[in-house]
Design a protein that fits this description.
The structure holds 2 protein chains of 2 kinds.
Chain A: E1 2-10, H1 14-25, E2 30-33, E3 49-50, H2 57-71, H3 73-77, E4 88-92, H4 95-110, E5 116-119, H5 123-126, H6 132-135, E6 139-143, E7 147-148, H7 151-164, E8 168-170, E9 175-181, E10 184-190, E11 194-202, H8 208-214, E12 222-233, E13 241-243, E14 250-253, E15 258-262, H9 278-291, E16 299-310, E17 317-320, E18 327-331, H10 337-353
Chain B: E1 4-6, E2 11-12, H1 13-21, H2 27-34, H3 47-58, E3 77-78, H4 79-82
Antiparallel strand pairs in B: 1-2
Helix pairs in contact in B: 1-3
Classes of the chains: A alpha/beta, B mainly alpha.
Chain lengths: 382, 88
């Protein structure tokens, strides 16, 4: 059996579903092929924060535009995405971190972001349960319009709106090959059928490298194992997402009242290993209790794992590749795929539809790594 | 229809039927859509009930349903207990 679509999206995470929405909105016939269920990869396992405090101009601009879309997304998609804007509080621990923070805030403000540098004594004005001494903090930065959305609600809202616009979703369907005709993409071979298409979009998260290699395109992406945990629910005690680039920790109190957060393991683990570890649980619990001692009394319900799809500069790989016309990359988000999905999906759809894109993503082409010098994003947690 | 299936997250049989009507075919999809099994009992109470409803409505057998992934912790434990060194 041969099926046809204008565009096939490989991967039903938040980016794949958002792309299905943005493309079908432009009357482009879309099919999403997902190996498991929607949001079953990194999307459904992530902290789902949305942050605009970045160290590179491009990420600040993209994140700002993404937040602007998030702010009206429930209305646009006709379903609640669980948006909460309680801000991101970035803890600073030493003079080196303070210098980077000053540079970041200066850059972010020059791009119109409302962000402030807080002194040591102002930290608990934002999150009262934090222990400044325990965190070994000398200051912080705070952006009140940063926040969080529900990754499940957001993904299903995008998918639902896309379906109403005619997009097709094939779950439990694996891509086995990317079909080509000369130097053009011709579609995909799946575990169910071939789907002929003019565009194939690789939004397969931590498995994007394998999908690309089916088309003889080599991506530099590496899967990093990440662990995360969640507590029982409690009454609201804080609104901001608290993060530290030095300790790598991030945690927030979610809509329902549970505290959810993660921290990198002492040693980086790459490759596909999804086992939960006691060492993570202890490291996270110890660090979280040091940051917010009152949380010692809260019980942990569950821990789980997921992958960051990491590129050499911790920034996504977006857009066309030279070798194969119509083969579009939407991967390598390095832990920031959820928060960038609204703007990235819109811009990729605009490019495919021949419209003027809302943002310039030419600096995120996959061939940038062949250049001698590329700018690495410094503001990474988890 | 107002029967509570997941007590931790207040999910009713009607909620589950609606989600199945929207295309949910697995217990994980019910979890993602409804938070079924995400509360303090981590599905110990609700999963078998939800599995029966899902099997009945979708024509699958209980045995062939993909179960939600079991993850630590076996029971809720306080952060204060976890932050200490483990005992042998």
């Amino acid at each position: 059996m041969i099926d046809h679509a204008d565009a096939v999206i490989v991967g039903g995470g938040v980016n794949g579903c958002a792309l299905a929405y943005e493309l079908s909105k432009r009357d482009i016939d879309v099919a999403v092929v997902e190996r498991d269920i929607l949001a079953s990869g990194a999307t459904g396992r992530c902290g789902a924060g949305m942050r605009q405090q970045w160290s590179t101009r491009e990420n600040v601009m993209l994140a700002k535009k993404s937040v602007a879309i998030f702010e009206q997304l429930s209305e646009e998609l006709g379903a609640d995405i669980g948006l909460r804007q309680g801000g991101y509080l970035v803890i600073v621990h030493d003079e080196e971190g303070m210098q980077q923070s000053r540079r970041n805030v200066e850059l972010q403000r020059s791009l119109g972001l409302d962000v402030e540098l807080l002194g040591r004594d102002e930290i608990t004005d934002v999150v009262s349960v934090l222990d400044v001494e325990g965190m070994d903090a000398i200051g912080a930065t705070f952006c009140p319009s940063d926040g969080h959305a529900d990754p499940f609600k957001t993904t299903y809202a995008y998918a639902g709106a896309a379906k109403r616009q005619g997009a097709r979703f094939y779950r439990f369907t694996e891509v086995e090959d990317v079909l080509t005709k000369g130097d053009e993409v011709a579609g995909v071979r799946t575990s169910r059928s071939d789907i002929a298409a003019d565009y194939v979009i690789n939004a397969a998260g931590a498995w994007s490298k394998q999908i690309a290699s089916m088309a003889d395109v080599e991506l530099p992406n590496v899967p990093y194992k990440k662990e995360i945990m969640v507590t029982e629910r409690m009454a609201r005690v804080f609104d901001a997402m608290v993060i530290s680039f030095k300790d790598g920790i991030y945690f927030s109190q979610q809509e329902e009242g549970q505290v959810l957060g993660g921290i990198p393991p002492p040693e980086t683990v790459t490759g596909y290993d999804d086992t939960s570890t006691l060492s993570f649980l202890q490291h996270m619990s110890g660090t979280l209790a040091r940051y917010a001692p009152v949380l010692r009394h809260v019980r942990v319900l569950r821990q789980w794992t997921g992958y960051y799809d990491v590129t050499p500069d911790a920034r996504p790989i977006l857009g066309e590749v030279d070798e194969l016309q119509g083969f579009i990359q939407c991967n390598g988000f390095s832990g920031h795929g959820f928060m960038l999905a609204p703007i990235v999906s819109r811009v990729l759809a605009q490019r495919i539809a021949g419209e003027t894109p809302d943002a310039d993503i030419s600096g995120l082409r996959y061939d940038r790594f062949t250049e001698e010098d590329f700018e690495r994003e410094q503001s990474v947690v988890g | 229809m107002t029967t509570i299936i997941c007590r931790c997250e207040d999910v009713t049989e009607a909620d589950i039927l609606e989600a199945i009507g929207d295309g949910c075919q697995t217990l994980d999809e019910l979890k993602y859509r409804l938070r079924l099994g995400m509360g303090p009992c981590q599905g110990r109470t609700c999963l078998t009930l939800a599995a029966r409803i899902l099997a009945r409505e979708t024509g699958q057998s209980i045995e062939e349903l993909a179960w939600q992934t079991a993850r630590p912790l076996a029971v809720p434990v306080s952060l204060g207990t976890l932050e200490g060194e483990p005992h042998d």
